């Protein structure tokens, strides 16, 4: 689905921190959205989190630096990191070039599948469109 200039693949779920999540067997694969990478600009550094680390929904778990922004990524759900995308150490631009494929950030063993089920999806197009609209207003207010 396309909302304004941003792609939101139908098979993914989305959080309010610009993250996407998809179920892969008994794990969740997580990354950042097309909207995130377009707002951030060229990504020049990604601090890949440690495997085995427990993360909590809404809390920071990784750092990203771009030409426009330095900040922390927040977790979509609670769980334990079982794999991190080491390619991002050498190729942080994968977040820009392939945010939904090669630019994934972590694989997570979730603590509670209900957290995943509660995330936004393209099935709730109005909710996702309202989120995009609100985020664009925040950007315009910061200019």
The CATH superfamily turns out to be RNA polymerase II/Efflux pump adaptor protein, barrel-sandwich hybrid domain
**CATH third-level topology:** OB fold (Dihydrolipoamide Acetyltransferase, E2P)
Q: What's the story with the biggest beta sheet?
A: 7 strands, antiparallel
The H/E string reads EEEEEHEEEEEHHEHEH
CATH architecture classification name: Beta Barrel
Residues in helix, %: 25-40%
Q: Would you tell me the overall average pLDDT?
A: 95
- What's the β-strand tally? 12
Tally of domains: 1
> Any idea what the shape is?
globular
Secondary structure class reads: alpha+beta
End-to-end distance: 28 Å
- Specify Rg, calculated over alpha carbons: 14 Å
Count of helical stretches: 5
Low-confidence stretches: none
């Amino acid at each position: 689905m396309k909302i304004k200039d941003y792609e939101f693949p139908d098979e993914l779920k989305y959080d309010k921190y610009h993250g996407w999540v998809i179920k892969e067997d008994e794990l969740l694969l997580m990354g950042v959205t097309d909207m995130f990478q377009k707002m951030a600009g060229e990504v020049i550094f990604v601090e890949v989190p440690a495997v085995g680390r427990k993360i909590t929904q809404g809390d920071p778990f990784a750092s990203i630096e771009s030409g426009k922004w330095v900040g922390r990524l927040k977790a979509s759900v609670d769980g334990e990191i079982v794999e991190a995308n080491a390619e991002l150490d050498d190729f942080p631009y994968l977040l820009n070039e392939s945010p939904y494929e090669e630019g994934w950030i972590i694989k997570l063993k979730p603590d509670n599948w209900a957290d995943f089920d509660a995330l936004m999806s393209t099935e709730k197009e109005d909710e996702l469109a309202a989120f995009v609209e609100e985020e664009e207003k925040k950007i315009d207010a910061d200019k």
